[in-house]
Amino acid sequence: MPQAELETNTIDRQEEDARLAALFAADILDSPPEASYDAITRLAAEYFHADSALLGFADESRVWVKSHWGRMVRELPRKNSIFDRVLAEDGPVVVADISKYPQFEAQQLLLKRLDAAFFASVPVRSFDGKILGVLTIFGRLPRHGIGPDAMQMLESLAHMVSSQVELRRLRKNVKGQGLRRSRTAADAAGAWPRRPDLRHALEQRQFVLYYQPEVDLSTRRIVGLEALIRWAHPERGLIPPMDFIPLAEESGMILPIGDWGLSEACRQIQQWCSEDPRHVSLRVCVNLSARQFSRAGLADHVEALLLQSGITSRQLGLEMTESSLIPDMRTALEVLGSLRKLGVSLLMDDFGTGYSSLNHLHSFPFDVLKIDRSFVGRMTEGDQPLQIVRTIIELARVLGMDVVAEGIETREQYRLLRQMGCRFGQGFLFARPMSAEAIGHLLRLPGRVIPEPEMHEVLDA
What we know:
Shape: elongated
Number of helices: 19
Radius of gyration: 24 Å
Strand content: 15-25%
């Protein structure tokens, strides 16, 4: 197939909305294993003498693997994926020798794990013809001559998957109707923003990342950055996350928005490093939601983003609150363990605000504790708040973890934290969250050290 034919076409918005509606109506994403799907991937692999077979479904930002045969990959970014190729062709795609198509960058993790040299992929459609996913076979050696009869067999197996998905949709139909009614009622109430507003913002690239420096308190050297999302609305101006993240969580849009944030942070890290190789020591931390942690394939997704961007795992940190881990402790432990194996830093945000934080420190493999700003802000109000912060710092020291104090706004807070041995901190005293361009200017300061006069200027701003 010519390279031009492999370029992803611009997605028609109405078609994509209809496709996603059909996908969500089937309620297939992140569902438990089912023997019927595993049987189909096994049949596909055995019929074609393939080394691996995958059945994946795609939402706005990812391809989630429902079933596999052979080596396993659970999740991948959707952009420039095999799914997008099949969607653009509106039919089967066969690549006999993957080495001739280096533009499959989104699939680096997949191809690396499967050691694949060729693939054949066919669409899995909804009852009304929408492409929901792909059934794909992979082989380690280039293969030529996959004829029409063989492809017809693969499409027949994909049709069996479609039948299973339609049965699922029918079983879930009553629940789906109730969900649509509740969303319609919410939309009719005139509240803003609505789910379509969030989707439109994502498509139009209206979300932006701001960055707040994390500094070494002894030197004021910038050692890392926390990425913080904002909505740059063309009419309403810069909208803070508290005004749209709750809706994103409730509506499920937090998944594609969160995936965009991860991808954008990795891209920005790569850009800073290309401008100055000394920035390879920087770590950029991204906040993850509870819904993202309910995805067992999150580590695969992160690994693929690292490969795509060309950054190392030590340059990325992932922050989560204790409450985001509680809903599904078993999945959270599995996901955190996989992320730890990748080498990314794991930070517990807002430490001390949960009801059983100490217990979770023994359960979860965190590298860094972030002291909640509410504790830092009350340090000068009496001995008890000061003792709480001192205890957290000592606890982290005993557990071999770093500590970052959030919300440092005064020189007295700065002095007390240094006195207690807190090594890192962030807050308005050093810098407010700012655009990537503005952060670029800070990073060009000699030694990346925020000077004393600049601290006064930021505080007085």
